[in-house]
Amino acid sequence: MPDKVLVYSRFPKAQLIRFGERYEMLNAAGKRLDDAFPAAELAEIRAMITAGGTALGADAMDLLPKLGAIVCYGTGYDGVDLAAAAKRGIAVGHSPGANAASVADTAVTLMLASVRRLLVADHYVRSGDWAGAKPSPMMRPQAGMRGRKVGVYGMGEIGRKIASRVAAFETEVGYFSRSKHDVAYQYFPTLEALADWCSVLMIAVRAGAETEHAVNADILRRLGSDGFVVNISRGSVIDQPALVAALTDGVIAGAGLDVFAREPHAPDALTALPNVVLSPHVGGHTLESHVAMQDCVLANLDAFFAGTPLPYKVTGA
Predict the structure, then answer these.
(1) Active-site entry in 94, 160, 165, 234
(2) Is 263 a residue of the active site?
(3) Is-catalytic flag, 265?
(4) What pTM did the predictor assign?
(5) 10 Å Cβ neighbour count for 29?
(6) pLDDT tens, 31-81?
(7) CA-angle at 34, arms to 31 and 38, nearest 5°
């Protein structure tokens, strides 16, 4: 009999096919566990798969007395209560770096679309305004990428790939992270100093209590009226109301956002703005990224059921 694995979050069925070939899957599909399955069935579960951003606290863990492994599909694990897991002796795994290249590509795409106002230009063509020679203040020439100072907040796998990509656009690249790294980019000791220096701020930091609303009204003001912010991290890193105000009042020039404070709900105040480019948290949503993330999930599950340490264990969990 194959081992049973609980699927905690709601996933597209296509993303679960490989797991079902090796394990017996119990799919809660995002429902409350005690609503989805009887207590007796939950009592036998030893491992689960979850999306890292899905809230997974002590109350859910208490319904699974034999739970020994929480495996996050993706690099993030901010939704998991790591303290509660550690208290119960539950190992937490994830997929570090598996989608880094795809997320970095999305970050650069959002940056270029924002700075070069591609959505505005697209509408200008589709609406017939270009053919009708109608003037538009949004179509006036703007500063491009050459010579811009791009700041990367977070220098992990994704941050490094973002930095290497934006450097190809003849920009200067600087960064701020918890520690200085051996990279060929200028290091800034604080986020404030980085924001004062750059005109494009790329957010690639891990979500958590220490980074919640780190990009606030003050940081946005420091970016300046020709500044742009791009977020492919988590929506919690930006103070979203402050961002809306900064975009509305011209404190910054624009933004590119793949993540939001309350997904899948992008507020009307953002969607109504012409100087914002939005995407539905698809940074790592490529075929090769999903294969790589599934490889990590399977490696973690296989190791757990074999009684060996998780190869992709969350540090400190």
Answers:
(1) 234
(2) yes
(3) no
(4) 0.90
(5) 11
(6) 999 999 999 999 999 999 999 989 999 999 999 999 999 999 999 899 999
(7) 120
